[in-house]
């Protein structure tokens, strides 16, 4: 491994840590004695994503994570949860056993997982992903979500971690504020 400080190619591993999917190695350069860390990850066959317009591009977990982060901005969702969603989606994509996967499959997987953890993040992601043609179409999706939340709340009223609690708290907060300006 080439030293990032002096460019020397000889280094010694001083510590290794297996994090499940990656291995972090702490190294010391044989020439300048500077320390640096490398991360090793298994490289699987590259997945190709087929976009709506027919273009093909390599799967990017960073791009998926970025989209999820945008949807979850200012929401009480830990970054670790988002990384777990990306990891879960990536694993599921590889299990499909296909070299090419339509982007719609990835979008649906992401929305399914977001819906379970935060209704607002789900609506944000869906509004970009599904490109609702008008406000009425988006409202229809929100109404379906509210119906599902009401059913889930009725089924498990004792569980405070359901989608209803995240959506309900948003409804309560909105009703306490002054109406939006037009």
Give a written overview of the molecule:
Among the domains are: 11-41, no CATH class; 48-139. Helices cover 49% and strands 18% of the residues. The chain has helices spanning 61-71, 79-96, 103-117, 119-129, 135-155, 163-176, and strands at 11-18, 22-29, 35-41, 48-50, 56-58, 100-102. The strands form 2 sheets. The protein has a 3-stranded antiparallel sheet with strand order 1-2-3, with no helix packed on it. The protein has a 3-stranded mixed sheet with strand order 5-4-6. Residues 162-182 have low confidence and may be disordered.
The 3D shape can be described as elongated
Q: Structural class of the helix and strand makeup?
A: alpha+beta
Largest sheet: 3 strands, antiparallel
Mean pLDDT: 85
Q: In oligomeric terms, what are we looking at?
A: single chain
In angstroms, what is the radius of gyration?
22 Å
What series of H and E elements makes up the topology? EEEEEHHEHHHH
Give, in spatial order, the strands making up the sheet with the most strands: 1-2-3
Assess the beta-strand content as a share of residues: 15-25%
What is the rounded distance between the termini?
60 Å
- Number of helical segments with 4 or more residues: 6
